[in-house]
Write a structure and sequence with these properties.
The complex is a heterodimer of chains A (about 300) and B (about 60). In chain A, about 55% of the residues lie in helices and about 10% in strands. Chain A is an alpha+beta fold and about 300 residues long. Chain A has 2 domains: about 5-150, no CATH class; about 155-285, 2-Layer Sandwich (Gyrase A, domain 2). In chain A, the strands form 2 sheets. A 4-stranded antiparallel β-sheet of chain A has the order 1-5-7-6. Chain A has a 3-stranded antiparallel β-sheet with strand order 2-3-4, with helices on one face. In chain A, strand 3 and strand 4 form a beta hairpin. Chain A is elongated, with a radius of gyration of 24 Å. Chain A starts with a helix and ends in a 23-residue tail after the last helix. A 4-stranded mixed β-sheet of chain B has the order 2-1-4-3, covered by helices on one side. Chain B is of the alpha+beta class. Classes of the chains: A alpha+beta (about 300), B alpha+beta (about 60). The interface between A and B is medium-sized, with 15 and 14 residues.
Amino acid sequence: MNEYSMPILFGVIIGTLARILMLRTDYRQYPTYLHGKVIHISLGFIAAALGSVAIPAIMELEFTAVTFLTVAATQFREVRNMERNTLTEVDGFELVPRGKTYIEGIAISFESRNYLVIFTSFFSTLTFIVFGMYIALIVATSCLAISMALMSGKRIKDIVEIEHHSLHFKGAGLYVDNIYIMNIGLPERQDEILRYGMGFVLTPKNINIVTTIANLGQRQAILHDVSVTLGVFRDSGTPALTPLIKRDLDDGRIGIFMLPQIRDINKAKKVIGEVPVLENAIRMPSESAFNHRKGDQ
Amino acid sequence: MEIEKVILAVITTNPSAIEGGAPTFICESRKEAEDIAANLEAITDGIAHQLSEDLFIIVKH
């Protein structure tokens, strides 16, 4: 035991705890099982150890030791690759796939959570050494709170109005409100769709959102989440029963056609509302300089 | 270039409306056309689309 043992131990424990708290099986439905969790808790432990030893290293004037943080960065970028590869491999066998944009979003968050762990451990150890354990506990708790806050992003319900519209056919064309979805030829399929299908229209609240929800990855994410939560009325080899989202070119509204097993309108609205807005789908045309030129605003 | 959508079959009760290309199934009645389209849809994992009252196509998406 030396003067740094306790601070390092403290940092490592807080860091690992942060990783465990951030490792919820949430709307992404991933990771679900122990093996996946063990991998991420172990990596979180390594991240916590790296964050904790940085301060003692500096205090001992071992400045070169800080360069191993770059090793950490490489290591965690590898985590992102690992998640991306696994999820992409598995995605082909989903009845309603997640889509690449969603997978990329999940992979990014796995990487960034490890950095949050490093920072948490770093500040916990720093305050432990400088101010003692009580202050360190306060700082650690606030770091955990900040990590949790950084983890959550916007949800679909924050950016659009969700309305239920019943499905209808004009000839063989399937429509949600006035948005054309697809051509269904067989009358029995049409009956099935009218019986089991549901339609929703999402109306964007401003110009930025029009582009965000038009993103194909964002649309696929909505379909995936809805199908995972409410079930889906389809099987392999029934492409006619594919949930789809199409766009109204006039005003940027999108029409969702879905085939849930639980046909509860309010529940479905809630599920759609809880879908995360994907980082990679967010567009902000209003931030562009061209939209701020004289006389425009 | 990769072709993503292919017309796998044409089912019609009006043979004069189509020519060449995909395998064509000529039917006596609309009922028969629907039955054949339903079967072909299941067999080929395609979707049966209706172009007009007497014309169905099976498309692989």
